[in-house]
Amino acid sequence: MLGTMNSPQYRVFVCTKQRPANAPEGCCCNVGALEIYQAFQAEIDKRQLGDRIEVRRSGCLDCCEAGAIALVYRPHQNEFSWLPTKLRLKLRRWFVPQRCLYGHLTRADIPAIVESHFIKGQALKRCQISTN
Ligand code: FES
Q1: Residues 12-35: tens digit of each pLDDT
Q2: Ligand 1 test: best mutation among 13, 19, 63, most atoms within 8 Å of CB?
Q3: Of 75, 72, 74, which Cα lies nearest the Cα of 109?
Q4: Which of 16, 50, 104, 115 is most buried, taking the most CB atoms under 10 A from its CB?
Q5: What gap in Å lies between CA 75 and CA 90, rounded to an integer?
Q6: How far is the CA of 19 from the centre of ligand 1 (A)?
Q7: Atom of ligand 1 nearest to the CA of 61
Q8: Which pLDDT tens digit goes with each residue over 23-76?
Q9: In the chain, what's the furthest Cα-to-Cα distance?
Q10: Which of 61, 65, 129, 130 to mutate to test the pocket of ligand 1 (most atoms within 8 A of CB)?
Q11: Which CATH fold would you assign to the domain 10-131?
Q12: Spacing, Cα 114 to ligand 1 middle (Å)
């Protein structure tokens, strides 16, 4: 299902949280998150996917030990919109993968993620750390 003009097909949230260098939990910023963010933007520009894919910076996504982290999220379109809300939410959970979490990212992974996830419609398993 393709997005409407106002609503992208996918959103990518790249955690760019910064903590002090000596913070015990670490942070994505210290493992190259800004580069990852820029690499997503560059790859999406290069492939002219800007009207389907939106890339945003986000705060901590709670997986700091697996940074750098990016969350790919499918905003709800009008799937099952004719059904009552409760049933609709259930169906979406079963049939529409909502979130895909990528971790331990390096700049070199981004073209492969864009190709696999946004062109072929399949999450790139080798970079995935969890789904729901
Ligand atoms: S700092 Fe990026 S997930 Fe926590």
Answers
A1: 999 999 999 899 999 999 999 999
A2: 63
A3: 72
A4: 16
A5: 15
A6: 9
A7: 3
A8: 999 999 999 999 999 999 999 999 999 999 999 999 999 999 999 999 998 887
A9: 52
A10: 61
A11: Glutaredoxin (3.40.30)
A12: 21
